[in-house]
Design brief:
With about 210 residues, the protein is mainly beta. It has one domain (about 5-195). It has two helices and 13 strands, in the order E-E-E-E-E-H-E-E-E-E-E-E-E-H-E. Strand 11 (about 165) and strand 12 form a beta hairpin. This is Immunity protein 43 domain-containing protein.
Length: about 210
């Protein structure tokens, strides 16, 4: 059976969910963003994010994507409910007016990955090493190919994960179960983009319309 999967995307613009969250972090991240083995990193610093916009006084998002990648405690609870593997690093968010948001926030480091593409049923272009001509392999996900574009994305059967790194897209992906639970919990500021026959991966705009 083929499970339905989605790209997890931040949707700013509603109350408490700014389109962009300007600010400054007090230190560099102590982990690699896409590494599916986050437990190996030693976290020595207290991570603080200082908001820069005085209008950002009612932050109420549950997940905010790149470049911040914060999630709320409720988001973590859904991960726990579904048995998602992850590691959290607390981040103290300080508002520009000196206050604190109503929610606690964390960096959520996904500890699972999957290659979703069924190459036999899909249409794509493989990325190749310019020096050797060999097919490029993702450095974080052993054996996972890198792609120039994917015109037809057919999902492999037999996958059973709920929140993870999608190796083809280098994005957070989730299951229908995760979507349903997030909807049930009333999560704000989230879009779930279906990975189906209408989905295309075209980072360099090579496919046209």
């Amino acid at each position: 059976m083929v499970q339905e999967f989605y790209i997890v995307e931040y949707a700013g613009g509603s109350s408490g969910c700014p389109i962009y969250l300007p600010g400054e972090e007090n230190c560099d991240w102590e982990w690699e963003t896409y590494d599916p083995e986050p437990d190996k990193y030693v976290i020595k610093n207290k991570h603080i994010f200082q908001c820069a916009d005085l209008d950002d006084v009612g932050l109420d998002f549950y997940y905010i994507g790149s470049p911040r990648r914060f999630v709320s405690h409720k988001f973590i609870e859904v991960c726990d409910l579904l048995g998602v593997k992850y590691r959290t690093v607390p981040v103290e968010v300080r508002l520009a007016n000196g206050g604190k948001p109503s929610k606690d926030y964390f960096f959520c480091l996904a500890a699972e990955w999957a290659a979703l593409l069924d190459e036999e049923k899909s249409e794509f272009s493989l990325e190749r090493n310019l020096s050797t001509g060999e097919v490029a392999v993702n450095k974080f996900y052993p054996g996972a190919h890198c792609y120039n574009w994917i015109k037809k994305f057919s999902v492999r059967s037999g996958l059973d994960k709920d929140f993870f790194w999608c190796s083809e897209l280098m994005e957070h992906a989730c299951s229908q179960r995760f979507v349903d639970e997030s909807t049930k919990q009333g999560f704000k500021g989230l879009n779930f983009i279906p990975i189906d026959e209408h989905f295309k991966y075209d980072p360099w705009s090579e496919l046209g319309d």
